[in-house]
Write a structure and sequence with these properties.
By secondary structure, the chain is of the alpha+beta class. About 35% of the residues lie in helices and about 20% in strands. The chain is built from 17 helices and 20 strands. A hairpin with a 7-residue loop joins strand 9 and strand 10. Helix 9 packs across helix 10 and helix 10 packs across helix 12. The longest helix has 21 residues. About 0% of the residues have low confidence.
Length: about 525
C-alpha cells in the first residue's frame, strides 16, 4: 500500500506542476484552471475530480484547432510549429524542442524541465546497465537515433527533431573520442534527407569505430536495417559481433519492435548480450524495462512533468474505435492489473487531457509496469478496422515459422486502401528477391495472413462477408525497397493517404521486381 500511495503522491505532485505551469496560460484560462483553489490539492481525489470537471479529453486535431482558436489563427495546419511556440499560449515553462507525435501526423512541444528530468532518469538507468555488465562509470552508449537532422525552429531557436535526439544531445561525445556517443550531426546533414543515405553513414561509422562500442542504443528497425545495409555492401552475411566485437549490452526503443525482431536477431546472431528496453515519447512518457523482465514491459517514470490518466478499453466504441461520449478517467491508484486502458496525458508543456491513442496493458500495479499493446483501431477506408497489434502479431508469428523453414522473413510491410476498387493493398518487403521465392510459399503467406486476420478481427470478416471489399492484393517487393522510397514517419504500417498513394509509390519503385498475389476468398 505504501508504494501505491507513493506513486499516487508522485502523480498528484505532477498534476500540481501542470496546473502551476498552464493555469494562467491561454489554454489554462480557457478551461478555467486558474480558478481551481490550491486548497483542493489537500485531497487527491478532490483534485482529480476538479481537474476532470474542468478539462475535456482532446484528440491531437481538436487540441491544435483549440490553440488556433485561442490564437485567432485561421490556417492552423500551416502554422502548427509557430502555434505551439506562441508565448503564454500553452505554458510558462521554457520550451526544449518540438517532437514528432507517435503514430500520428503532427508534432508536440516538450519543455526543458521535462528533458532534464528524462536525461537524469535515463542516466540512472544506464548506470545500472553499466554496473550489471561490469563496465566503467565513464561508459556511454553509442546512440543511433531515428531523427538525426536537428532543425532549429522559430525565434526561440528550439530544435524540431526526435526526442531520442534531444536526449542524446547532452552527451555530445563524437567518434573521435574514447567514448562513443553518436554520429556527428554535420556528417548526417551532409548525407542529405535520404533514409538510405543516412543508413549508409550509420553503417560506415559503426564499421569504422565498432571496436569502441560497448553499449548500443537504437531501435530494432534500425538494427535490422544496418544489418541489411552491411550485408548488401559486402555481398556476404555480416553479423554484429564482427562489427562490434566488444559489445556488452543493447538498449532498444520498446515501441513497435515485433516486425523487425527476426531481422535484428539475424544480424545479432552469435552475440549473446543482454537487451534492455527503453521508451521515450513526444507527449512526455518515459521509462525503462524491468530487470529480468520482458523488454516490452516498461516501468514509467511518474515524476517527469506528466500526469497520466487511464480510460478502460470498455469505454471505446467498437464500431468507431473512438472514445464514448461518457468515459471513465482513472488515476494510477484505480487501475487494475492485466486490464487494457487508453493512455491520456497532461503535461507541463501545455497538453491537457490529450488522448495519446495508445492502448496499454497493466502488467503490474505496484510498482506500475506497462506494456504497449497498440494504437487505437485504425479505421481503414474500407472499414476493415485493422490495427497494428493484429497485423504485426500475425507477421511476427508467421516470420518465426518461415524463417526456420525457408530462411525467409518479412522485413517491412504497409497496408493501404484502393477505395474505387474496393480493395486493400498490402506491400510486403522480403529479405530475398520475391522472384526467387516459390510461388506456393508466397501464396501460403498471403492466405495465412488473410485467414488469421479473419479470425482475430470480426469487423474484417464481417466486411468481407458483406462484400464491403474484395479479397486484398499482396505485392511482395525486394529487400531495400522501403529504404529507397523513404519509410514514412507518419503512417507506420498503414497508408492513410487517399487511394493508398504511398503504398502505390512503393509498388512503383519495385517495378517488375515485385510479385503480386491475390488472397483467396474466405467465408464465415
Amino acid at each position: 500500500m505504501a508504494k501505491e500511495n507513493s506513486q499516487l503522491k508522485q502523480q498528484y505532485q505532477q498534476l500540481k506542476l501542470v496546473l502551476s505551469a498552464v493555469s494562467n496560460s491561454s489554454i489554462g484560462k480557457h478551461f478555467g484552471l486558474n480558478e481551481i483553489p490550491d486548497s483542493i490539492f489537500k485531497k487527491t481525489e478532490k483534485a482529480h475530480i476538479a481537474f476532470v470537471e474542468n478539462t475535456d479529453i482532446m484528440s491531437y486535431e481538436s487540441f491544435i484547432h483549440l490553440l488556433g482558436g485561442l490564437a485567432e489563427e485561421d490556417k492552423v495546419e500551416y502554422v502548427i510549429q509557430d502555434l505551439l511556440l506562441r508565448p503564454n499560449l500553452l505554458t510558462n515553462k521554457e520550451f526544449g524542442g518540438l517532437c514528432p507525435l507517435h503514430w500520428q501526423n503532427g508534432i508536440l512541444p516538450i519543455t526543458k524541465f521535462q528533458l532534464e528530468m528524462m536525461v537524469n532518469k535515463q542516466e540512472d538507468f544506464h548506470k545500472k546497465i553499466f554496473k550489471e555488465n561490469n563496465l566503467g562509470s565513464k561508459s556511454i552508449p553509442f546512440n543511433i537515433y531515428k531523427h538525426p537532422l536537428l532543425t532549429l525552429f522559430g525565434e526561440q531557436r528550439v530544435p524540431c527533431t526526435g526526442i531520442d535526439t534531444l536526449l542524446a544531445q547532452p552527451r555530445k561525445k563524437f567518434f573521435g573520442t574514447t567514448n562513443v556517443a553518436m554520429p556527428n550531426i554535420d556528417v548526417l546533414q551532409a548525407a542529405g534527407k535520404s533514409e538510405s543515405q543516412r543508413l549508409k553513414v550509420y553503417s560506415e561509422l559503426l564499421e569504422q569505430h565498432g571496436n569502441k562500442v560497448e553499449v548500443l542504443r537504437t531501435s530494432a528497425r534500425l538494427l535490422s536495417d544496418i544489418g541489411f545495409q552491411l550485408t548488401s555492401q559486402r555481398q556476404r552475411n555480416v553479423r554484429l559481433p564482427e562489427v562490434c566485437p566488444n559489445l556488452k549490452a543493447v538498449i532498444l526503443k520498446s515501441i513497435d519492435m515485433s516486425p523487425y525482431q527476426v531481422g535484428m536477431s539475424n544480424f545479432m546472431q552469435g552475440q549473446n548480450v543482454p537487451i534492455y528496453g527503453e521508451v521515450y515519447t513526444s507527449f512526455g512518457l518515459f521509462g525503462n524495462s524491468v530487470k529480468n523482465g520482458n523488454v516490452d514491459d516498461i516501468q514509467p517514470v511518474l515524476d517527469a512533468g506528466v500526469f497520466f490518466e487511464f480510460i478502460p478499453i470498455e469505454d471505446i466504441d467498437e464500431s468507431t474505435g473512438k472514445l464514448k461520449s461518457i468515459c471513465r478517467r482513472l488515476d494510477v491508484a484505480n487501475i487494475e492489473e492485466n486490464q487494457e486502458y487508453v493512455l491520456i496525458v497532461s503535461s507541463v508543456a501545455g497538453l491537457l487531457g490529450l488522448n495519446t491513442n495508445i492502448v496499454v496493458r497493466i502488467k503490474n500495479k505496484d510498482p506500475l509496469v506497462l506494456n504497449f499493446v497498440r494504437p487505437l483501431l485504425v479505421l481503414n477506408g474500407l472499414n476493415e478496422k485493422l490495427s497494428s497489434d493484429q497485423t504485426t502479431s500475425i507477421i511476427k508469428e508467421l516470420n518465426d515459422v518461415i524463417v526456420k523453414s525457408y530462411q525467409l522473413y518479412m522485413r517491412e510491410y504497409m497496408v493501404g486502401d484502393h477505395i474505387d476498387r474496393e480493395q486493400a493493398i498490402w506491400v510486403i518487403e522480403l529479405n530475398q528477391d520475391p522472384k526467387d521465392v516459390s510461388p506456393q510459399v508466397l501464396k501460403s503467406i498471403v492466405n495465412r495472413i488473410h485467414l488469421e486476420l479473419s479470425k482475430v478481427n470480426r469487423s474484417y470478416l464481417r466486411a468481407l462477408d458483406k462484400g464491403s471489399f474484395y479479397a486484398p492484393i499482396f505485392s511482395f517487393v525486394p529487400p531495400g525497397t522501403f529504404l529507397q522510397v523513404g519509410r514514412s514517419k507518419i503512417f507506420g504500417h498503414f497508408d492513410l493517404t487517399p487511394e493508398g498513394r504511398y503504398v502505390r509509390r512503393i509498388m512503383s519503385r519495385a517495378g517488375e521486381s515485385q510479385v503480386k498475389v491475390r488472397a483467396v476468398k474466405i467465408s464465415s
